[in-house]
Amino acid sequence: MIKLKSLWKSPENQIYTLGWGWMMGLDTLQYITGDIVQITEQEAENYADAVNELYQMYITAAQYVIDNQLFNQLAIPENIVEMIKYTWEDDRHLHLYGRFDLSGGTDNQPIKLIEFNSDTATCIPETAVIQWAHLKANQLDETLQFNSLYDLLKENFIRLREANSDLTPTLLISTMKDFPEDDTNVEVLGEAAQEAGFEVDYCHIEDVHFSPEDGIFTRNHFDNYYRYDFWFKLVPWEYIAYDEPELMNILNKIVMNRKAVVINPAYNILFQSKGILKVLWDLFPQHPLLLETSDTILTNKEYCVEKVLFGREGANVKILDRNSQTMIEKQGEYGEYPKIYQEYVEFLRDYQGNCYQAGVFFAYEAAALGFRRGGRIIDNTAQFTGHLIS
């Protein structure tokens, strides 16, 4: 049973005192639970060690995919392959951050990889700031967390600027319109980038201008254009490659002609595709951090989880028994993608039966821990629960 501690005071006042009131969306406090998960220092170290090891395994797996031209197995469109190879070989294209989703880690339950949200991971403000403020609001030692996300994001932005010293540190940050949660997430990234020496602006992707010859621009009401040498997009690469092939073609030219650096780089689509879970199992069979994964139903397991290669927030996920009967499923809009089958594992649970999935951010190294609380399939109705090292 997971160990919880109930906190009675919300972090709202502390967040406004910090001047971070912009991150308080309309439903943020209802989404943040009044509980925190209690873990030991050793458990925190185990999460960090697991994620650092998993990231190196992902690098090995991605190199294997590239070397063996396995892009089709990961449902990677042909129009992004050239940029994948280019950014993979050029160290100036730094992976800014991602989030590993894990089962186990406390209550003597082994840590297992569920998947890696490497491209457009959210839960940044909750993890970096709100859970820290939650401890502070309740007169607990706010340093007793595995939580260096904000500082490590800042350090990664510094690395990015120094690795691309031939470019001007001007950063445009984009989300899609009508997704206020995304806007809140990128505000944290923008704060970290500014502290790292970038000039930062924000513009929804629908209003950004792209030129294969000149780069990435915004335009104001007076028809003045502003050019940016760095572009962060909280828009998945597969959306662009599949649904916006013309933009994909332009971005290929922009990136490979050094007109701009796009963050996260294109090779993250390799990490993002759940097809790489099978590659990992093929390369590291029986590894203690991995769950068996196949492109066919696992009839040797009592249950397995069917996932589409590019799905989000639990959409189009099914839990199947060995006879292919659906036990639980979540509907979604990603059903046209190919599927993989991953061994089912129980999440951590509390006394009310709620399930807890650990999310560990990676930004050059393991960066921070937070938990999402929900059902057996963690979806977009899950709540965020912070933690305390005790």
Architecture overview:
The radius of gyration is 21 Å and the shape is globular. A hairpin with a 3-residue loop joins β7 (209-211) and β8 (215-219). The model has no long low-confidence stretch (mean pLDDT 92). The chain contains 11 helices and 20 strands. It folds into 2 domains: 4-274 and 346-389, no CATH class; 292-343, no CATH class. α3 (41-67) packs across α11 (275-283) and α6 crosses α7. With 390 residues, the chain is α+β, with helices and mostly antiparallel strands. Strands 1, 2, 3, 4, 17, 18, 19 and 20 form an 8-stranded mixed sheet that branches. Strands 12-16-13-14-15 form a 5-stranded antiparallel sheet, covered by helices on one side. A 4-stranded parallel sheet has the order 6-5-10-11, with helices on one face. Helices cover 32% and strands 25% of the residues.
Which descriptors would you attach to this protein?
five-stranded antiparallel β-sheet, alpha+beta, 390 residues, 2 domains
Put the structure in a nutshell:
The chain has 390 residues and is of the alpha+beta class. The chain contains eleven helices and 20 strands. The chain folds into two domains: 315 residues, no CATH class; 52 residues, no CATH class.
Low-confidence stretches: none
Rg over C-alpha atoms, rounded to the nearest angstrom: 21 Å
Largest sheet geometry: 8 strands, mixed
Report the β-strand fraction as a percent range.
Answer: 25-35%
* Number of extended strands: 20
Give the averaged pLDDT, no decimals: 92
Global geometry: globular
Structural class: alpha+beta
Distance between the termini: 16 Å
State the share of residues found in helices, binned by percent. 25-40%
- Domain module count: 2
Figure out the total of helices: 11
